[in-house]
Amino acid sequence: MTILYPNFLWLILPLSLLLWNSSSRLITSVHLIILMLIVLSLGRPVLEEALQETNIESKDVIIALDVSYSMRAADISPTRYEFAKETISELLKINPSDNVMLIAFTSNPLLLSPPTTDHRLINVALQSLNPDFILTKGTSLKKLFKKISSMKTGHQNLVLITDGGDEEDTEALNELLEASNVTLTILGLGTTQGATIQNKDGSLLKDKEGDLVISRINPMLESLASAVSGTYLSASSSPEATAKGINDVLQKNADTLQNIQKMQRYHKELYQIPLSLAALLFLMVHTRAIKYLFMLFALFGIHAEAQTSMLDSYRLGLAYRSYEAADYNKTYAQLIQIDNRSLQSQMALANTYYKQRLYKKSIQTYKSIRSTSAKIKQQLYYNMANAYAQMEAYDKAKIYYTKALQLGEDADALHNLKIIALLDTKKDPQLGNANPKPQGSDAGKSEDQETEKEETKNEETPSSGSGGGEKSGQQEEHSKNKLHSTENEELQPLGSKVYELINKGYIRETQPW
Description:
Elements: E1 2-3, H1 12-21, H2 26-42, E2 45-58, E3 60-66, H3 80-94, E4 99-105, E5 109-116, H4 119-128, H5 141-151, E6 156-162, H6 170-180, E7 182-188, E8 195-196, E9 214-215, H7 220-227, E10 231-234, H8 239-252, E11 258-269, H9 272-286, H10 290-324, H11 328-335, H12 343-355, H13 359-368, H14 374-390, H15 394-406, H16 411-421, H17 441-446, H18 449-452, H19 471-474, E12 482-484, H20 496-502
Parallel strand pairs: 3-4, 3-6, 6-7, 7-10, 11-12
Antiparallel strand pairs: 1-2, 2-11, 4-5, 8-9
Helix pairs in contact: 1-2, 2-9, 3-4, 3-8, 5-6, 6-7, 10-11, 10-12, 11-12, 12-13, 13-14, 14-15, 15-16
């Protein structure tokens, strides 16, 4: 069990102290227990289920943020740079499913975040960027567009947030944009009157002649957007309103929407349990009809649970019959409709992937299954070894055949291990019994019925003793549209190397403003 919002649990501490020091009145103690149960419900207790591949509708967006020295000008409050950061954060909140790439640029562009739907990571990269460590004062749109063009990521929505810098060659920029295959939206930050730029020590920035530097919005930006049929926007009254304007423009590009696949971890909510207990305790104290309420809630809970269980069992039976009839598409359709995923249903799903020749998905599903039964583990290792053998990953197949044999005798595993031990990596295996051992209705009732009630914990890594060190070789190669949730990934601030790359070549700037 996992608590999604553990911070709420701190409220239980003062309630526990009050309960300990409360008077002997029973009703006071019951009320405190009710409050503790409500706090536990607010913490959202859940049971984690397996990672599942989900199709989501998303737009591909590149956000290019100008971080040059001129963005410190305060003609847009508090500064152009801070306003831009807040606008990006608000834009990410509006469209949480968008596949967003973040690029910072001055004289040189630098990729801060690859395409991802995990906007939390983008915000971390954005907040970690410290403008005090950026020495470059110029703005090169030309290098930015060349960088985007070299990525060759297909059609993208480019949101360019800049004051324009000293760029003047609109025609050359137009050619680069056409080669980049992007739909351009420009947020111009700055005013025609311009503003001075304050240094870290509080002094105002001056040029070589000692004159104050006045940074103004570059009028070239508007003509650039018009030349490529893009959209030019100015800053609104607030970052929220500005982000809404950008989002309205992006929504007009509906033809760029696409379905992408993302691995998501689903949860089974348990908050209703402590909440129901709190309600029952309250009714016990303040009503006289509690015996009838007990009967009603008990009947409702038993009915709902039995109905769900019966429906899942019916779908699993249909899936077994389809599997035996070799109709694997129908088997898959039945299995994904099962609400409460059991060991049997997950094993059947993995076997179905194997039969459909989706070996990587098959291996991933086998790895997500948890059991304390040695027989089940042996079967999982054998099935994963078969899948690796079909992909001609013989070294990994050897490892898992060996693991299967370490858990007990298995003639099929020994036979296959002997064959692949002699194979050259370029040969096709001629394996005997290379299919996964069936998890059909008969097998499920005999061998797995006892283990079905065991607590299973779905994770991405192999079970105990399954060789976690092979993880890097076992993961799928993902395209830009194959995205993974990184909720448990430790977030780090930007290192000095990032700023070194951003500042590369700043010494040779000739027209920094």
